[in-house]
Amino acid sequence: MHLFSRVAVLSALTCAVALPAQQAATLMVQADKSLHAVSPTLYGLMTEEINYSYDGGLYAEMVRNRAFGRDWSGVKNWYLDNLGDAQATMKLVTDDGPSDALLGSLRVDVTAATSTAPAALRNDGWWGMALKPGTTYAGSFYARGDVGTVTVSLVNNNSGKTVATATVDGVTGDWKQHTFMLKTGDRVEAGSANHLLLSFAKPGSISLQLVSLFPPTYKGRANGNRPDIMAMMAEMHPKFLRMPGGNYLEGDTVDERFDWKATLGPLVDRPTHRSPWNYQSTDGMGLLEFLEWTEDLKIDPVLAVYAGYSLKGTHIGPGASMRPYVDEALEEIEFVTGDASTKWGAVRAKLGHPAPFPLTYVEIGNEDNLDRSGSYEARWPQFAKAIRAKYPNLKLIATAPVKHGPQPDVVDDHYYKRAEEFFSMVDHYDNADRKGPKIFVGEWATREGAPTTNMGAALGDAAWMTGMERNSDLIVMAAYAPLFVNVNPGGMQWESNLIGYDAASSYGSPSFYAQSMFAEALGTDVPTTSITGANKRFFYSVTRDASKLYVKIVNASTEPQLLDVKIDGAAVTGEATLATLHGNSRSETNTIDDPKHIVPVTTKLRAAAATHRTVAPLTVEVLTLPLK
User: Fold this and answer.
1) How far apart (Å, rounded) are the C-alpha atoms in residues 495 and 485?
2) What range does the record give for the signal peptide (predicted)?
């Protein structure tokens, strides 16, 4: 449906006289009677290395398998691409590399090559390498050998034409990092059908490691992130980032956990490690990069520390065996918050960030309710006591209920449901105990649609968010998961994600827009409300601030709903703003090829008309009313 026709449909459905015989729902709002404040940190971000979220996604590295990992088929994603009669072989060497972290390298032995028919090594990137006209790409590699000059090129897959090239001299018998810049011409066609080529014009041998290429990044960060995906996260109006993620924190085994110390410093000193979703993480997205990510979006980190349990069931017993991991957590907190006079604050300062980062919440572990041994009851106190002794101002999040030892400030609840399940549990927290810990809904999503969610999922998500907003005295934070998915074949391990992308572009699902609409109109207080006469799939929340009333409406029914909003305790005058997200069916969605199929439409209404009208079926609305 074209945008203008969608607007026309919505305008017709919001007309108060569309269905004069229909029973109206009446929403009563006592605007001057606040039930409680809205948590100012209610909506945030949670990511982890799944669906190629970092490598092949947010992290802007264009070279795939830059550190030459291998499987049964050989060195993955690297191919010989010799021209003419050139001849070369390649093999992985395990005992020759530029650092203790990267002990191996790829050796290319060239037996025949000329300047017109060079031997070459090709990398196709993460399902392509996205290029734009008139753009400079920064590259580097470590090498030693005797092939002389290395020519580095970006080549179009379809035409075979070189679109950017540079030469690197000075490759000798000693390991050294070499840098280069590749600039595309103004007539280069934007797209991802490109590859990187390293060419050798004479016989000899060269050993290579850490071949890297970056496009322009968000805010120009070295080793930074894709601007388009960062901008989409900013559009969600988040308040925090839960880092470094859930399963990614734990790893399948203790050795495969997120070892934050191994992610610091130059890339050549980062050994890489296997993620729980069966591919190798470059560790380019290290602890400091996570923290800089929060800085760039002007949000706060929620730091998760490893607590001795990994996904395949291994856990470390409390006591002396656990002490090194507790110390590791304390040192990590010091890296984040310590000034340059502290040991790990000094390390952070040496890496280029002298100022400490803000930190309020520390999460101990991840989904420890899945630990069948029940060991969290003994592991939690050891971490909680140590952290509170050294950092009494920090608030601690438990990832499972605990009966003994220090009580957590917050407990992390996770929900992955279908839309109808979320409809039925919107009131889940309405009568929850307010005397215990606060709640962090650290992972949640309506799992409908693939690779990204559809309109039905957006309705489930929005309905659930109305319940979280009404209970935001108890629920202090919430984060949708997973946030990202690479939509290429083989890029997805988990269905129903918020933001999809390929090498060249990204898009938001209908759920993405529902999240953005709600977070933008958060408000500061929840006034007293009640509703009568609504259909069984009609959900709402109301918040306000000093000058506006925000009415969030979800009509998940396939029938329109006439609505009267009656407001006492404040005058509503002037022009109202109505943001509407509407689908023709629950299966309707956005895709990489049709990224704006379902997007919010914003209209202006007279306040009187805005409070008496028909809400379209399969619709999420945010009505903003000016208060006097």
Assistant:
1) 9
2) 1-23
Written out in words, the top-level CATH class of the domain with range 3-36+524-626 is mainly beta
Amino acid at 448: E
For tokens 């709402």, name the residue: 540
Residue 596, number of CB atoms within 10 A of its CB: 10
Q: Give 146-157 as a DSSP string.
A: S---EEEEEEET
CATH 3.20.20.80 fits 43-60+224-520, yes or no: yes
Rounded distance between C-alpha atoms, residue 60 and residue 54, angstroms: 8
47 by Cβ neighbours in 10 Å (0-12 / 13-18 / 19+) ranks as buried
Residues in the chain, how many?
628
Cα–Cα distance measured from residue 581 to residue 597, given in angstroms and rounded to the nearest whole number:
11
Q: Considering only CA atoms, which of 177, 167, 176, 181 is closest in space to residue 139?
A: 181
Which architecture characterizes domain 70-214 according to CATH?
Sandwich (2.60)
- Whose CA is closest to 238, among 78, 477, 527, 59? 477
Please tell me the predicted confidence (pLDDT) of residue 22.
66
Distances in Å between the Cα of 324 and the Cα atoms of 112, 253, 307, 361, 549 are: 54, 16, 11, 21, 51
How far is it, in rounded angstroms, from Cα 362 to Cα 251?
19
Residue ranges with strand state E in 184-308: 194-200, 204-214, 240-243, 273-274, 280-281, 300-305
Block residue for tokens 């074209």: 2
Give Cα separations from 15 to 9, 569, 609 (angstroms): 10, 26, 8
Range 14-17, long-range pairs (CB < 8 A, 24+ positions): 14/578, 14/580, 14/603, 14/605, 14/613, 14/614, 14/615, 14/616, 15/613, 15/614, 16/562, 16/609, 16/612, 16/613, 16/614
Residues of the chain with pLDDT under 70: 1-22
The phi-psi region of residue 359 (left if phi > 0; otherwise alpha if psi is between -120 and 50; otherwise beta) is beta
Instruction: Indicate the domain borders of the chain.
Output: 3-36+524-626, 43-60+224-520, 70-214
Closest among 464, 378, 363 to 410, alpha carbons compared: 363
- The mean of the pLDDT values for the chain is 95
CA distances (Å), 21 to each of 18, 380, 555, in order?
A: 9, 59, 18
pLDDT at 236: 98
Cβ partners under 8 Å of residue 480, min gap 6: 46, 443, 444, 445, 461, 498, 511, 515
pLDDT digits (tens, 9 = 90+) for 429-465: 999 999 999 999 999 999 999 999 999 999 999 999 9
Longest alpha-carbon distance in the chain: 86
